[in-house]
Here is the input.
Amino acid sequence: MPELPEVQTTVDGVKKHLVGLTIRDAWSDYNSPFYKGKGDIKDPAYFARFRKAVRDAKIKSASRRGKNVLIHLSNGKTILIHMKMTGHVMYGRYEKAHSKKADVKDPWHATEPGPLRDDPFNRFIHFVLSFSNDRHMVLSDMRKFAKVTLIDTAALDQSPHLSSHGPEPLEKGFNVKALIAVVSKKPNGAIKTVLMNPEIVSGIGNIYSDEILWRAGIHPLERVKNIPARKWLLVYKAIRQTLLRGIGFGGDSMSDYRNILGERGDFQEKHRAYRRTGERCSKPACPGTIRRLVIGGRSAHFCDAHQKLSKID
Here is the structure.
């Protein structure tokens, strides 16, 4: 699932390429009975209202909240996109096949050479915004888990999609004291699980929690209450350093994430723990090996030397 760095990379791409464009139309082939009557474009009736509402609106700006892309429109509405497991947003020139013999599974195709057209992970298009410049913003979503909805911009913070989110770890006001305050709500929780809880800290998922804890030297199963005060500064610094590093490398494309131009990020080349099982730890002078365990159904990767579990109770 795209995490904070991937979502921020997407938002930066929206800001660069889409601001000022006018939406001419919207298209979607999502259609799930499970979403009938819910505020998601997977309900065709909701999408019909969504389509009417966004037509002729101009894109004013974009921002991020947790793992959500927020595209703010000139009509006082905001398009919220949560890319979920396999979604990513792209921008370019596309065309829709109209032939009866066309591949109805993937009817939209990029028309220009490059990663938008040539990368197979970019072909699962299920949502399209058409713009006044004859280009398109598309959502490729192989497993069709992504969420797209429309919210009044003035009511974003009160929206059920966002209201329960914890603080943003890269905001200026988020310091080590703020970190301790929020994680202390789950004193008996394993630190990896707590960091991944969006109601505690927004935007951290499986990949970056592994990398954060490797950098801080904390075992992923360590209970919050057992982490000594002196180590919280290390955790705080590791959060900032790891997330900023992920943004700097354009996100992580170990799976199918791509940026707004359909290009891969590079953070997967910089992993120190995530999916490095069996490899020697890359921390200088550390004799450890990267191990894997499962916590709450999710994989955790850690060094068996410098990430020792300090206490079991």
About this structure: Residues 104 and 202 are 37 Å apart (CA to CA). DSSP finds seven helices and twelve strands in the chain. The mean pLDDT is 96. The longest strand covers residues 59-65.
